[in-house]
Amino acid sequence: MPDSRSGEFRGNRNLGRLSRISQSRQEEETARCLELGLEAADSINDRRISLFSRGHQPAFAGINTFMKARYCEDVRRVGDYEAAFVGIPFDTGTTYRPGTRFGPQGVRRISAVYDGYSVDGAVDLFEELDLCDAGDVFVIPGNIEKTFDQVSKAVSHVYTSGAFPILCGGDHSLGYPNVRGIAPHIEGNVGIIHIDRHIDMQDMDMDERMHTTPWFWTTHGHESVDVHGSHRDHSHMHDVGLANCPPKNLVQMGIGGWYGSRPGSAVARERGSSVLTMTDIEELGPKGAAERALELAWKDARAVYLSFDIDSIDPGFAPGTGTPEPGGLLPREALEIVRLIAREGLCGMEVVEVSPPYDVNDNTSQLACRVILDVLGTMVVEGKLGHRRESRLPE
Range of 16's domain? Predict the structure, then answer.
């Protein structure tokens, strides 16, 4: 429908907005590629092409970082960027199909097809966001607790540097150490919006913390939780929860199916967290469900963290995951929900459970990449991230 105020279609208005964004970053990148990659052969008419590939093109060439962003090899300089992609290639917490340790590389590989320019969102991430790839956390295969310590320290470093953490797993056990790297640095409560088909809230699975347990531990340290009523012998673990992550600010969306929800459902009911099943989302619609989640997660909270499990999307679209469960979100529904959530701003985000060995045509990795891009683009448009104002050309 045309806009009644201007008679313009939304796409035309967005093209107008995009035309007012500077292309100085692209020009700088072209000059850099020619300097580092040398001038092309004489037969090449487009003299912006270099001899060795050093930029975004061709998408199938080069050494991949996420979106072919700058590699922050010296992670002490990660604060020079506004957002940082961090891979966490860990799947020792998986209880069914492994393979998510290859998730970060799968997402990086398919991200090369994107140039950061979105007509839908009227945003140019390459111009409006200083993004880097900080590489992968050095995980300890076979040792969950040591890996958790590595992850929390790494995420804490990125967050306190001032860069927005984009955390790419790996299995969902990482939800707990990821939030543990951020929450202690926030003065006030942290809400969590968790989009998944599985509730992931039991205390132990096969006698350890697994990808079925992150939200038990994240909320376990809050004063509202009766620790004695739910505590077993966890003396071998380094800690037992986060004090500023109250269960009432944990919202879980898309939960359902026929696997893995009984133990966690009892904990959710006991602690008073909020569960929006797929049936709830169907009844409320994506917009209504997102609004309800935001209301609950932000109530008396200082910040909100987004956890997106790729198995929340129906496996017909996202087969490359460890525990597929039919009946999940359609891609368009999932992307609408994350955009609505991101409009209010986030303190960090994770996308987990991408397992490339089970993927088809990189579909699952591509959807994970789109979730990240839609969150970043929305935050840039809403002024929660990036430098949109400085990227505008003079009127």
Answer: 1-55
